[in-house]
Amino acid sequence: MVKPLEHYFTNNDNLKSEIKKLSYSWDNYVFSFLSDNGVFSKMKIDYGSLFLLETYLKNKKEDPPHDFLDVGCGYGYIGIVLSKVFNIKGTMIDVNKRAVHLTKRNIDLNKVDCEAFVSDTYENVKNKYDLIITNPPIRAGKKVLLDILRGAINYLNDDGECWFVMRVDHGVKTMIKNLEDVYNCEVIDKSKGFYVVSLKIKKNALTNNI
Predict the structure, then answer these.
(1) Sign of dihedral through CA atoms 169, 60, 32, 133?
(2) What Cα–Cα distance (Å) separates residue 56 from each residue in 79, 134, 162, 197, 204?
(3) Could you give the 3-state DSSP secondary structure of residue 108?
(4) Eight-class DSSP state of 16
(5) pTM for this entry
(6) CATH class of 45-205
(7) How do 67-71 and 129-134 pair as beta strands?
(8) Nearest to residue 78, comparing CAs of 65, 153, 200?
(9) DSSP state of 17
(10) What is the pLDDT of residues 110-168, one digit of tens each?
């Protein structure tokens, strides 16, 4: 039996597969996603990811990025919708092999220009992006969250942004304080205890200070 706190950011090759199909629509776009046991929010699209994505789509409708990196992509919901709606190239990573396999299937299913590969935070990431977007794995612990959010500075273009979502009761206010030395942090929107936060690199921030 899989431990309840490790199911979506660890790998269990013995976990039985039970494919489910989820749907989502935005404007005139309709999406289908394959989900499975052992990935985050397998039964439905979670509210945090939904709120993060739709807040970004609304705020960047007239100024979309040229490319993006989706960190902790799960089965690919955020990245696939971004890629289709903005017609841009996407890269999606997750430490969970099953999640990446599902993302690759969902990329083909939704016919978007994306790639997906396994990476423990930024371990296998080589490029820089206009946008890094993430619904970070809270239960993986503070160190992993800081590795993702502070580490984003090394993988953003100079004018790039990192957007993330986090709940108040998961410490989003403390997290913002922990990031203010290297980023200009802006709370874009709030809903049901969730904060969507935008991070922009401070001009005097150095990558060796993270």
Answers:
(1) negative
(2) 12, 11, 11, 10, 26
(3) helix
(4) P
(5) 0.90
(6) alpha beta
(7) parallel
(8) 65
(9) P
(10) 999 999 999 999 999 999 999 999 999 888 788 999 999 999 999 999 999 999 999 99
List all residues 6 or more positions away from 18 whose beta carbon is below 8 Å from its beta carbon: 36, 37
Location of structure tokens 């970004």: 56
d(CA 35, CA 118): 17
CA–CA separation, 174 vs 138, rounded Å?
13
DSSP string, 23-65: EEEETTEEEEEEE-TTSTT-SS--HHHHHHHHHHHHHTTTS--
In sequence order, what E strands does the chain have?
Answer: 20-26, 29-35, 67-71, 89-94, 114-118, 129-134, 156-167, 183-191, 194-201
**Residue 96: strand, helix, or coil:** coil
Structure tokens at 62: 């007239």
- Residue 9: which pLDDT band, with cuts at 50, 70 and 90? low
Mean pLDDT of 27-56: 90
Query: Which run of H or E residues covers position 145?
Result: helix 142-151
What's the Cα-to-Cα distance from 81 to each of 15, 70, 172, rounded to whole Å? 28, 11, 25
Spatial separation of the C-alpha atoms in residues 48 and 30, rounded to whole Å: 20
Q: Sign (positive/negative) of CA torsion 154, 144, 132, 93?
A: positive
User: Which of 41, 40, 47 has the alpha carbon at shortest distance from 10?
Assistant: 40
Query: pLDDT tens digit string along 51-96?
Result: 999 999 999 999 999 999 999 999 999 999 999 999 999 999 999 9
Encoding tokens for residue 48?
């945090």
